[in-house]
Amino acid sequence: MSDVIWAPWRMEFILGQKPPECVLCGYVDVAPAPGTLVLAQGPLAYVVLNKFPYTAGHIMVVPRRHVCNPEALQVQESNALWQMVHASIAPLRAATQCPGMNIGINVGQVAGAGIHEHIHVHLVPRWGGDNNFMPALADTRVMPEYLDDSWQRLAPAFAEFRKEFAQ
After folding, report:
1. CA gap 49, 37 in Å, rounded
2. What is the C-alpha separation between 53 and 51, in angstroms, rounded?
3. What is the pLDDT of residues 115-144, one digit of tens each?
4. 46 and 61 in contact (C-beta within 8 Å)?
5. pTM score, two decimals?
6. Range with the lowest mean pLDDT among 72-76, 84-88, 135-139?
């Protein structure tokens, strides 16, 4: 007999009605606060928890301007995006105690981008043994933490970060 592990939050993303406006543009100018998922805002980019994460602490760094390809970013936007990615690594690692991390971009829907209309960089904390048979065989991820709890854990680590990137 096999066990059943429920991951119902994913179905909202898979089957849920997609808003007509860009979901990532909706976080622009949202102040970091519990319930917002936003961890930091800068003049050209921001950091937000992924609402449908691959692991606990999965964040995204997003340019404020709505563009779908990296080459569409202006030089200062690209520099700010990567500076924010670079600056996000230490607080994310400190808050999650992860020994590894995946960092990357999926450009275009066929490349795996769930929100292909607005480019964003994923930072995904990784731990030994976190990749098991569930994603490969059952297309299910087991999340050990609620999003609000992730935000509460990450927010203090991003406090200095917010000062550095304050507008």
Report:
1. 5
2. 6
3. 888 999 999 998 886 655 445 445 555 566
4. yes
5. 0.78
6. 135-139
**Domains within the chain, CATH numbers bracketed:** 23-164 (3.30.428.10)
Query: Which two tokens mark 110?
Result: 């066929």
In the chain, which residue ranges form alpha helices assigned H by DSSP?
9-15, 75-96, 133, 147-154, 159-164
- Angle separating helix axes 147-154 and 75-96, nearest 10 degrees: 100
Q: Which residues are catalytic?
A: 120
Contact 43/166 with Cβ under 8 angstroms? Answer: no
- Take residue 132 and report the two structure tokens written for it: 């098991």
- For the range 107-115, what are the long-range contacts, defined as Cβ-Cβ under 8 Å and sequence gap of 24 or more? 107/68, 107/69, 107/70, 108/68, 114/13, 114/52, 115/22, 115/23, 115/24
Q: How far is CA 159 from CA 73, 126, 131, 162, in A?
A: 27, 22, 30, 5
Torsion of CA 143, 37, 94, 162, to 10 degrees: 170
